[in-house]
Fold these 3 entries.
Entry 1:
Amino acid sequence: MDKPRIAIVGAGAVGGYAGAYMAQAGHDVTFIDPWPEHVEAMRAKGLTVAHLKDVPEFTVPVRAIHITELQSFAKERPVDIAFVCMKSYDTAWATTMIAQYLSPGGYVVSLQNCINEETIAGIVGWGRVLGAIASLITVELTGPGLVKRAAGKSGASHTVYRVGEPHGRISPRAAFVTSLLALSDSALTTTNLWGERWSKLVANVMGNGIAAATGLVAKEATADDAIRAFSARLGSEAIRVGQALGYDLEEILHLDAEVIARAGEGDAEARAAYDAQRLADTQKPGGGAHRASMGQDMVKGRRTEIEFLNGFVVAKGKEVGIEARANAALTEIVKRVERGEAKPSPDLIRGLRLN
């Protein structure tokens, strides 16, 4: 039996990283990306992956095409697995673009930061959707054809990838996708996709917008007492909204979700535990030396995903009667910076006065 044909739609940090390992293992992978220089670099020199420590740099020859060339797929074998790795605001058009080239049994895997499965299902149907979370992966596309990870492999110390079906049952295809992602680091197949998704959302809510608003790398933001406290407030609101929606939350940033929630609500014991863990994480090799993805977007002048992270918490909070004031404030700050009305600064967070 032929190996499945795999398409990586969006060969940025996460898509490029995971896909490079699939290609290195001999899988039939095509990278599709909108950045011309990146595509040309992959064609000419291959895709290079580098780690901060422990893992030797490698370059793998890959097939890469511009999105404008995708119509050539009409003359080729259909795609069996399409990993959509685009920003959330590009999910709908990217899914529509690749959907017409799926095989009859083909399906789409959302390997993205935010919760986009419903958008994808609206295009291909729920039976052709899987979700995959990349947790604390700290990767960045630093230049054309080059992905860097600000860490080594997590391995047994932390499960990076979690793959699940929307219906929550373990399926052969979910297990196979897990095996593909496990080529690059630790992975598991989960029966709790929605809880995993919301837990990852909370982690992103606590760090991404802060990086965009302040210009700080994760380690610097965590070391700042006021910003670290505000991060707990953001997480607390998101956790309470997720619980109200009925999600079974997983560990978040190496902490029990309830500890973060109570820390953000002013519980002294929980705050002490939260501070200790967050500060300890920065002392690990490479701990927090990276810039969160939304911070990378701001530096590069790209649109951020703030509406799909902190703004999403605000919207869902309204549905369940929970006011997410901190998340609303951060959403507005990031939009102001994005529009050029303010410059990234820690003072944008320190100056907030929220009861």
Entry 2:
Amino acid sequence: MIDFESYLRRIGLAGTDSPSWQAIHRAHATSIPFENLDPHRGIAVSLEQPDLERKLVSEGRGGYCFEHNLLLASALEHIGLKVEPMLARVRVGRTTSAPRPAGHLVLRVTGADGKPWHADVGFGLGTLLDPIPFGADPDNVNEQSGWSFRVIGDGPELVLQTLGADGWSDVYGFVPEPVPQVDIEVSNWWTSTNPGSAFVFGLIASVHRPDGQREAICDWSGSLTEIATTPAGTVSAELARSAIPEKLAEFGLPGFALDEDGRVRAGS
């Protein structure tokens, strides 16, 4: 990481004396919004370290999984931890058995005690707030701010699951093998530029609050929907597109406006 102190200020840990990496994970997850405003506007996402720090730290923007987790990885490497990136396939909302693209990024972090941990601050509709032990153990339920997560095995994959009103459901699955940067770049390029990618044709922005509340806007189902989720349940309602700039500002993303076709652009 180029400017670790600015990153700590961005996530609210400025002045903290040697914060633990677990504290950095939670602070990142609850401070930096998830958003796809660049792909939505036709701007390819750069994963170069200076660009990550400029966008998510200096400019106060958010990003999606590749940006979030690579930024976190650079911070954890800065404090001396071993971090291994792995590509995952999202399972939320899957209606067929056909695999989706490997369009999500997760991290295996080796702590100072030598134990591996599963870290992820970049899943837009419900990311981990705290890291959890790495590996399949369906009996190990990890509770964090009211949410429950566990990891099970499914053939060669590890599958992150979350507990809801209807029981456990899959979030994403991944083969627990580190991937080189070039594979991450290919997945990121597809996700941020392919017309068939939801991050290109659609809009999503979300925030995770320290108390466990999640707030999001998303139009992937067609109409724009405002979603508020707590461990007790979800409340959603259609939202007029004209409300997007105001809602983005509430998420800490001011300075955006709408084109005549209802797509987001930078404000004047």
Entry 3:
Amino acid sequence: MKVYRHIEEFTPLSLGVATTGTFDGVHQGHRFILDRLARIRNEQEGAESVLLTFDPHPREVLQPGTHLKLLNSMDEKIQRLEAAGLDHLIIHPFDRSFSRTSSLEFVRNILVQKLGVRKLVIGYDHHFGRNREGSFAHLKEYGPLYGFDVEEIPAQDIDQVAVSSTKIRSALKDGDMGRANLFLGYTYGADTEVVHGDRMGRTIGFPTANCRFAEVRKVIPGDGVYAVQVGHGDRVIGGMCHIGRRPTVDDAKESRVEVHLLDFKEDLYGEALRLSFVRRVRDVQKFEGMQQLKEQLERDEKVVREVLGQSDAAE
């Protein structure tokens, strides 16, 4: 897959099969669009597939006070789109000036002239152009004028719920990893860096790595204790992750992401870890003291091992 950081870097295709959108999460609904794109491309000799997406996310520009959190870093999005078999990915800068592009200008100047689109595949209820004025009806009208066909993919339902990035963000905030991972079609994860902590966990036999998300715009799952798979170099290690404040340890209002790796004793400071959130085990709780906290962590570890299918190395 070829990646372009501005639409001006792209040479128009002679037979472009295209889609456009933010594709945050590259979730199950997105995959249906991408699979359809790939099938159309494979059926037409000389056709190439292209996705036009944007950075930053348009809502970050148009609604700056919303502090939107994302499901993917750009690197993660690129990896997932490449795995989907896309030929070309254009990541065009989105700013106030671009947001004023009318729907007609977007179709004529960008889709047709810059991309060379001959077949356009869009998701259900897709809107584009200034004030989101463009719709499927507009595309059906413009298609014959500018020589392209358009196809709308219906909303993809799972458990009678239409999959969307917004619903996945909501599930993550609720700690509902089952629903979030089902909608995504993969286990939600984040790249992190291990930073200095206060080493409090060591005093009760549960040393933790204090992790900082590498992508500050990425969604952090809701407060709680999670069963996680931890990528460290070429290894994947089971772990339990605490997200939120530590009411038993201190009164600080700072929320932390701390992970205890099972059967692992190496120093991790400064290392990169990939956290994949499998299931939420419990809420954050305040205990009467450190001994009570330790006893709960021992119970948590048993549950986490069961979730991950990992036996106790001491057994």
